[in-house]
């Protein structure tokens, strides 16, 4: 009788312990995930404040809310070229079902936009609420737009991206006679890409896809070629602890002359002074920046670790009892 009672007490203790182990395991898993995410946020915040680490949560265009600005005046035009491989990767990380349409050529930068900008401010944007977009006005340059100013989003209808750029930015640029209609606006972007193609500028400094560089090396290559300070933007992948080059922005006066991007408020980028100059960026200032030739594979969350099931513990105890009785 005493032996049987001891065995049942042992069984009860084991069952109670395994249930608690299951609860603790579940709690640890959840807390580890939450701790990982919380730590990533804290690290991101601290390093941004210290100007040592910068992460781009939303690199597309700027992070301003789309609204109509009361003041439509602007000081400069920002011309943005994007590296489509990184843009696609950024979208796929947000939604693994996202479809991208990438250029066939390997070393091929595309246009994101021509953005009128007031120094120290975001925008202006949506300067003409009665404006419309007429795709037919772009017939003569449609082939070039599809090639050099394409939508990377494979789910968008033809013209949707250009409509957005025109209504948000083109309607503000239209205050200049040289940009006062759709055709002039998009022709200007195409002409700037041909003249200031980033693959040529970076390539002349020996920087090509499938390489790692620092943001300072990228900035120096551009300044050496253009003589003006750009704004350089990255996407940070906290799963890989790696920054990917996504966009490079150069600036022009209203007379269409190159100028420094100093004084621009480009979303999450900030000016960082280093010995020899100032770089405007959201990229990690001291770690390598990857310039990928292919879209990196997405990293899915790891499955929860195997836990010791209560049912198996019960069967084990039953076997012990049977064996010892």
Automatic annotation (TrEMBL):
Which InterPro entries does the record match to this protein? Ribonuclease_T2_eukaryotic, RNase_T2-like, RNase_T2-like_sf, RNase_T2_His_AS_2
**Signal sequence segment:** 1-20
Q: Where is the active site?
A: 112, 165, 169
Cite the Gene3D superfamilies for this sequence: Ribonuclease T2-like
Going by the UniProt record, its keywords in alphabetical order are: Disulfide bond, Signal
Q: Name one Pfam family in it.
A: Ribonuclease_T2
Q: State if Cell cycle is listed as a keyword.
A: no
Q: Which family does it belong to?
A: Belongs to the RNase T2 family.
> What is this protein called in UniProt?
Ribonuclease Oy
Protein's gene: LOC105230040
């Amino acid at each position: 009788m005493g032996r049987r009672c001891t065995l049942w007490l042992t069984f009860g203790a084991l069952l109670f312990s395994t249930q608690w182990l299951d609860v603790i395991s579940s709690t640890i898993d959840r807390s580890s995930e939450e701790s990982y995410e919380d730590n990533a946020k804290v690290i991101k915040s601290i390093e941004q404040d210290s100007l040592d680490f910068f992460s781009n949560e939303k690199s597309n265009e700027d992070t301003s809310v789309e609204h109509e600005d009361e003041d439509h005046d602007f000081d400069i035009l920002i011309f943005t070229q994007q590296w489509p491989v990184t843009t696609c990767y950024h979208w796929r990380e947000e939604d693994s079902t996202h479809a991208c349409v990438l250029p066939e050529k390997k070393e091929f930068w595309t246009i994101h936009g021509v953005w009128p900008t007031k120094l120290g401010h975001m925008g202006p944007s949506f300067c003409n609420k009665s404006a419309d977009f007429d795709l037919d006005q772009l017939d003569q340059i449609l082939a070039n737009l599809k090639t050099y100013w394409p939508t990377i989003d494979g789910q968008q209808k033809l013209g949707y991206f250009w409509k957005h750029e025109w209504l948000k930015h083109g309607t503000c640029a239209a205050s200049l006679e040289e940009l006062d209609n759709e055709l002039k606006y998009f022709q200007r972007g195409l002409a700037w890409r041909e003249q200031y193609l980033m693959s040529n500028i970076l390539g002349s400094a020996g920087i090509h896809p499938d390489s790692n560089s620092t943001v300072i090396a990228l900035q120096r290559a551009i300044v050496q070629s253009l003589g003006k300070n750009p704004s350089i933007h990255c996407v940070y992948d906290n799963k890989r602890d790696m920054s990917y080059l996504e966009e490079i922005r150069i600036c022009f006066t209203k007379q269409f002359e190159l100028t420094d991007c100093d004084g621009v408020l480009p979303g999450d980028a900030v000016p960082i002074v280093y010995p020899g100059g100032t770089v405007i960026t959201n990229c990690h200032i001291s770690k390598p920046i990857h310039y990928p030739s292919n879209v990196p594979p997405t990293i899915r969350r790891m499955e929860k670790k195997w836990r010791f099931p209560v049912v198996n513990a019960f069967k084990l105890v039953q076997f012990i009892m049977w064996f010892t009785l």
